[in-house]
Specification:
This protein is α/β, with parallel strands linked by helices. It contains six helices and nine strands; from the N terminus they run H-H-E-H-E-H-E-E-H-E-E-E-H-E-E. The longest helix has 17 residues, at 5-21. The radius of gyration is 16 Å and the shape is globular.
Length: 226
């Protein structure tokens, strides 16, 4: 099967990803997620990290003793994740394929950080994520916000540069944006209620233009309505 544009991009990026994103402020979503979840996760908790990449979000929770199941579409990013965290359970898969191999499992915490901006069908993606959250469990994710009065992010979709890391050899990827109200409506249909959220600067495009994401922490409170 031919690899998607996003998977190919991250395969290319994998060998330099951790080094290129470690500079303060270069790529902030993993730090935002860890900060939001800190104090809420215990060693007994199970975590599903969708878009695990090289394990930047899961690293502190693995150290706590949590069982983490990591999912990513990039085989090269997963290879690095395996080298860094040999005991982590990892699978190469796309969220839009439904993660059917996990249908009989649910998790205390599900994370999806730094990749929903590349997903063509965010409603489907959020449904798949929500289906893996235990009752009273947590869902933590980021998305690129559509901001009507901010021209760089006023469109529903646009093709932009290489993202948070400029490598010079990757074509721009299509970015998809939602408003918080749109995402809240999807979550409500999934039986998920937002507990915390805020806007933050995820990176600067070309080192000049700020790009803003929303981070959401939500809890499953009832069965889905779909």
């Amino acid at each position: 099967m031919k690899k998607s544009e996003v998977a190919s991009y991250y395969d290319t990026l994998a060998s330099i990803y951790d080094h290129a994103t470690q500079e303060a402020g270069k790529w902030t979503p993993p730090q935002e997620a860890v900060q939001m979840l800190s104090g809420l996760i215990e060693a007994v908790h199970s975590i599903l990290d969708v878009g695990v990449g090289t394990g930047q979000v899961s690293a502190p929770f693995l150290k706590m003793g949590c069982h983490v199941c990591g999912i990513d579409i990039s085989s090269e990013m997963l290879a690095i994740c395996r080298r860094k965290f040999p005991t982590m359970e990892v699978h190469e898969a796309s969220i839009l394929d439904g993660l059917r191999f996990l249908e009989d499992r649910s998790f205390d915490v599900v994370t999806a950080v730094g990749f929903l901006e590349f997903v063509t069908d965010i409603e489907r993606a959020i449904q798949v994520l929500s289906d893996r959250v235990k009752h009273d469990g947590l869902l933590c994710f980021t998305f690129e916000e559509r901001i009507s009065d901010y021209p760089p992010q006023s469109q529903v979709q646009s093709r932009s540069g290489a993202g948070s890391v400029q490598t010079g050899h990757a074509q721009g990827l299509m970015h998809y944006r939602q408003t918080l109200d749109e995402v809240t409506e999807i979550l409500e249909l999934c039986g998920i209620q937002i507990e915390q959220n805020h806007r933050f600067q995820a990176y600067t495009k070309g080192g000049i233009v700020p790009v803003f994401y929303q981070i959401v922490l939500a809890r499953r409170i009832k069965a889905p309505q779909y």
